[in-house]
Amino acid sequence: MFLRVICSPQLPASSSQIGRKNLIWVESNGGRYIPAVGDLVIGTVHHSAADFFYVTLSDYTSNATLPQLAFEMASKKNRPQLHSGDLVYARVSLANRHMDPELECVSPSTGKAEGLGPLSEGMLYSISLGMARRLLMRKSAEEGKVVVLDELGSAGLAFETAVGRNGKMWVNSKDMKTVLVVGRAVTETDEKSLAVEQQKKLVRKLVKEMA
Amino acid sequence: MTTTTSGPEALLSHLHSADGSATFSYAGYTIIGAVNGPIEAQRRDEIPEEAVVDVVVRPAAGVGGTRERHLEALLQSTLRQIILVTNFPRALIQITLQVTVAPENEYVNTKVVQANTNLPMLPALIQTAVLALMSAAIPLTATLTSVVIAATTEDGSNRDIINPTAREIEKSRSLHVFAFTSHGDLILTQSEGEFTMKEWEDILASAQQQCCPNTSGDVNMGDDAATGADLGTFTRSVMEAKIASDLYWK
Q: What is A40-120's CATH number, 2.40.50.140, 3.10.100.10, 1.10.3720.10, 1.10.10.10?
């Protein structure tokens, strides 16, 4: 029997893709983000043209396109004004190896943003693809064993985050110090491969230093 | 520097800005490999249906010359056969290999008469490239193992030396490099010097035994032929350790 083994940080989003015969997916942590339909990503606007925004998902890859009308309540007269360098939280709506990926900031079925759209203010951190995947898990604390965000929240910090499957994390808070602490806690957990207990210890240390 | 006897060593994903990287030390060579890709290819280089594989070899000292260009050409044509290039049309996969340590007495005459010493470095370059590609999670059809063998004549009897030193290469009649895929297929062969077809076939057999010990059903050759490390198993165990450390949280 011929077995095809794919080493990838990106397991398929939908289970129908796993069903292919004689195929094993081995999860890993390295490599470059390759867009797949349904992935939530954080992109940087590169430039805008008549109908599209051109959005960078990772360095040195061709831009993804984001239609200017793919936002909640967008119309020809009322569309978001995004400039070069702005961040957007979007879903990959079309990914195909022969074409540049396409994004959307609105659910095509409900017409609602569902949390997607431009990200204003805040700070962007680069994390590994494996870490992004863990943070995006439905139960990131139980399945992904990342508790930093929960711990920071229960330590009394108020902040919001958005995680992109392309290895980006956006953090925002009214307090700049909180933004830095949250970003540092997650990047450190990622780089030093911290276990649950170590993550709790790190959060306690960071919160103590902050006060 | 008699590193020929020590086993291979590798370090994976240690460069932060590259998508994948590996440092590989074996047989007196230490090579750092970095892989970036799939990234956007330049418009004039892109291939509509396939990825472009770009290999850059940089020597331990100075800038590359014809010797490096030759190695790059060999590596490029070998690697694009195992990379699933059709998965990334119009993209570029860039492989940079920096030699940091070469065997001390490699430049025997110090003068640049290198055209005949291209080959000994090839197995280490191939191994580094494959490890770096796996670190970058580039889909491959197979991994490679490679070996360099020198055919020498000592006291009238022929002897094949696996991973020969520079002096042994100098004295040898012919030098051969073979690379095999993990399925046991021959993918690259380069030879130089004088040899007969019969000799080449014998050397091929011992290379096969060296590179894919599991696929060739023969027993170990025993006697004086020094056997090197089993690079196939080595690659496998390095990858296993890498995946295990990636999934530390599971």
A: 2.40.50.140
With an 8 Å Cβ cutoff, are A97 and B19 in contact?
A: no
How close A134 comes to chain B (CA, Å)?
Answer: 10
Residues A200-211 have pLDDT tens digits of 999 999 999 988
The residue among B140, B246, B247 with the most chain A CBs within 10 A of its CB, best to mutate, is: B246
CA distance, residue A1 to nearest chain B CA (Å):
13
- Structural domain contains residue B3: no
Q: Per-residue confidence at A169, pLDDT binned at 50, 70, 90?
A: very high
**C-alpha to C-alpha distance for B61 and B230, rounded to whole angstroms:** 30
Residues in chain B with pLDDT values less than 50: 1-4, 111-115, 216-217, 219-226
Can you tell me the distance from the alpha carbon of A86 to that of B45, in angstroms, rounded to the nearest whole number? 31
Q: Give the pTM.
A: 0.89
> Which residues form the domain of B237?
9-105+115-246
d(CA B244, CA B250): 9
Contact B135 A34 (CB under 8 A): no
Yes or no, beta carbons of A30 and B245 under 8 Å apart: no
Question: What is the number of structural domains in chain B?
Answer: 1
Tell me what pLDDT residue B224 has: 39
Q: Is residue B20 part of a domain?
A: yes
Does A12 reach chain B within 8 Å, measured CB to CB?
no
What pLDDT, on a 0 to 100 scale, did the predictor assign at position A6?
Answer: 58
CATH class of A124-210: alpha beta
Of A28, A134, A145, nearest to B243 by CB-CB distance is A28
B139 touches B87 (CB < 8 A): yes
User: CB within 8 A of A152, min separation 6: which ones?
Assistant: A159, A181, A182, A185, A203, A207
Please report, for the domain that includes residue B61, its CATH number.
3.30.230.70
What single DSSP character describes residue A114?
T
The residue ranking higher by pLDDT, A95 or A28, is A95
Instruction: Give the ipTM.
Output: 0.87
Across the interface, which of B36, B134, B246 has its CB nearest the CB of A29?
A: B246
Residue ranges of chain A that CATH labels 3.30.1370.10: 124-210
Is the CB of B39 less than 8 angstroms away from the CB of A60? yes
